[in-house]
Amino acid sequence: MQSRVVAFLWLFIITILFLLPGSALPKNEMLIPHFDKYVHVGFFAVLLFLWRLQGEHSFRFGLLLLLLAFVYGVGIEYIQHYFIANRSFDMGDVIADMVGAVAGVLVAGLYKKNRPL
Question: Which pLDDT tens digit goes with each residue over 37-72?
Fold first, then answer.
């Protein structure tokens, strides 16, 4: 039950961060190229890892999570484009989201499979 609270809390936190105006975001591109893509990968990897631990260890559940992550990622991009100042739709962010989502599902699957009883 506690892990479900953590999963919802993480979803809430990253949603707030994704909805910040562009002027509130740090400009780290000079230090680390494509820094924002790494952030997207990390956010979604953690998100899908936490949610994958909630359900049964099945291929179908993992696919459902990936589909929901895709819808969430695209939805966030559309919201940024149409409703958030200084933000836009970036297909690169969606791709980074899905890379992180796949990584999170795979790592959680390995974790659940190899965890001691």
Answer: 999 999 999 999 999 988 777 889 899 999 999 999
Q: Kindly indicate the confidence band of residue 20, based on its pLDDT and cuts at 50, 70 and 90.
A: confident
Reported for 31-37, long-range contacts at CB under 8 A and 24+ positions apart, including other chains, are 34/92, 36/93, 36/96, 37/92, 37/93, 37/96
Q: Is 23's pLDDT higher than 70?
A: no
- Residue identified by tokens 């919802």 is 8
- Do residues 108 and 49 lie in contact, with contact meaning Cβ atoms separated by under 8 Å? yes
Token pair, residue 115, equals 């965890």
Residues 6+ apart with CB under 8 A from 30: none
Give the separation between CA 80 and CA 117, rounded to whole angstroms.
43
The rounded distance, in Å, linking the Cα atoms of 12 and 19 is 11
Taking CA atoms, 14 is separated from 41, 106, 111, 116, in Å, by 12, 21, 23, 31
Q: What is the number of other CB atoms lying within 10 angstroms of the CB of residue 3? A: 11
